[in-house]
Task: structure prediction
Amino acid sequence: MKGCLLIHGYTGGPFEVEPLADCLKKEGFITLCPTLHGHGGIRKNLRYSSYKKWLDSADQAYKELSRQCDEITVIGFSMGGLLAFQLAHKYKPKCMVSMSTPIYCIDFKNLKDDLLLNIRTKNNQRLKEYFFSCFTPMAANLNFRILLHHSKRLLPELNLPVMVVQGAKDPVVRAESARFIYNTIPSDQKSLCFYEKSNHLLHYSCEKDRIYDAIIDFIKQHG
Result:
């Protein structure tokens, strides 16, 4: 059996990757979308978590999926991509997909444009996310930076098929991140895909169908 492990982002939850998981299920893949330690509740719970606990959550999920599947693709969204690098280094999965994974954070022009757009369109949900991001515990933010540092150092050692996906209008992760990941991983089986109309939340962008089709094609070819 073929499986896909989908890892959500920092302060997020499985809802960020479940739309893609649903598409993969329809294609016959077994999927697993774990909730990382400290996530899935209120933000202040993150003060009791750490990057090691996030990695342990992802590691345990990989082991659980490996009991059902002999071939696994790891798909990481945002910080989940950093965890995917760690798992790829440790377990050598069949292939990997990196979505909106940070190396260089915050594009201030895209951030301003996205914020103004959400004010004009009265997108209260997105505005709430911006507001509550101010209340993320500093200890958790520090652990995020430590994870980024450790994961970035692994890239030259990841020799597996990899697809790097990035929204050109991402206000959270600068586009240089995707280029750095693509250029640093030494695999000769890799692709870099930019989506001009998409922001950070690729799973809810107007181009999500194109993104999902490309990811599924990549996994079928390499996974």
Q: What stands out?
A: The chain has one domain: 2-222. Residues 51-66 form the longest helix (16 residues).
